[in-house]
Amino acid sequence: MADPTIPVSVPGSTVAPVNKGELFTSFDVEAFEVPSSREEAWRFTPFRRLRGLHDGSATADGQATVSVTGAGDGVTVETVGRDDKRLGQGGVPFDRIAAQAYSCFDEATVVTVAREVEVADPIVVTLEGPGVDKTAFGHVQIRLEAFARAVVVLDQKGSGTYAENVEFIVDDQAALTVVNVHDWADDAVHVATHHIKVGRDSVLRHFAISLGGDLVRLSPLVRYAAPGGDVELWGLYFADAGQHLEQRLLIDHNQPNCRSNVVYKGALQGDPSGDRSREAHTVWIGDVLIRPEAEGTDTFELNRNLLLTDNARADSVPNLEIETGEIVGAGHASATGRFDDEQLFYLQARGIPEDQARRLVIRGFFGEVIAKITVPELRERLSAAIEHELEISGA
């Protein structure tokens, strides 16, 4: 079940890993210690709002509902038990919540696109939360066999507390675009790990859109199974008063001649009264590791945050660890700030009222990410959602 290419450290060891890739991994929740705020991986996460997901006190008393539409010829949708040998091939849990989710789900949804099949329309996987005051755990696996091509929309909505592992396995010379939309209700707590495994000369375009929920924490981990993989991670998030939205990425360049590009953009609007419990808080951690054997790597990561009001906090930490000098390029950039006064002045000087000018700047800020989404219905939906957020802020 476990992937032998994934390094394993000693549980409970006080010695720091040699690098970000030396993660302890296990399917067993008891192999992990209860996390604390002293750990780098958890120092920004408010444990009191996790409803016991981190310490094992959360128990499954509800059920999330998964449905799949748009699966045509060459696409297989299965509901399987936890003994299915394919589960875990995309990656092994590397923190306690992911291991808890793996240990507690009853059934998993596996979507497989057959070899050389090109799916014309998006495959939509809709997940409905377990409901108010309910907790559930889940598992989804998306598999593209060699030379297949598909677009998958993972649409998550509803209420409750939900932890999950999602696997994306892209075999040799296949191409997958996945758009994950977090459109949760205001009460929802969602913690997810995305295990991404790309094959030889395969292509993955991964979009993470976080709009709703009380607390949402997403951890995508990318590993290359062979040379030539091409991965892009795009993100868009809009945090309102009281929301905590957290993205923690790790791209492990462990094969030669692979590429990665990361662009995440967020906007925040907190409660201007100054109530700290109503602060809008986002966290973006972007880790890129280039191992000694990953010659010919080309990578870049970018995070931009726009503060629309007071009482908003954006933590942005790009990290780049390079263990070989034989690379094409590597870099990162991060910036957090308020409106660009020059942009507003330029628009107002041409007769555009200030409120409309502010809206135009925000639309332009997110436009780069939205334009990359190939599903017209989703682009329209996201544009409408951003307009709704702007109405809330009064921008």
UniProtKB/TrEMBL annotation:
UniProt record similarity statement: Belongs to the iron-sulfur cluster assembly SufBD family.
Highest taxon, organism lineage: Bacteria
Protein name: SUF system FeS cluster assembly SufBD core domain-containing protein
InterPro entries: Fe-S_cluster_assembly_SufBD, SUF_FeS_clus_asmbl_SufBD_core, SUF_FeS_clus_asmbl_SufBD_sf, SUF_FeS_clus_asmbl_SufD
Classification via SUPFAM superfamilies: Stabilizer of iron transporter SufD (SSF101960)
Residues spanning the membrane: none
NCBIfam families for this protein: sufD
Domain SUF system FeS cluster assembly SufBD core: 134-365
Species of the source: Gordonia jacobaea
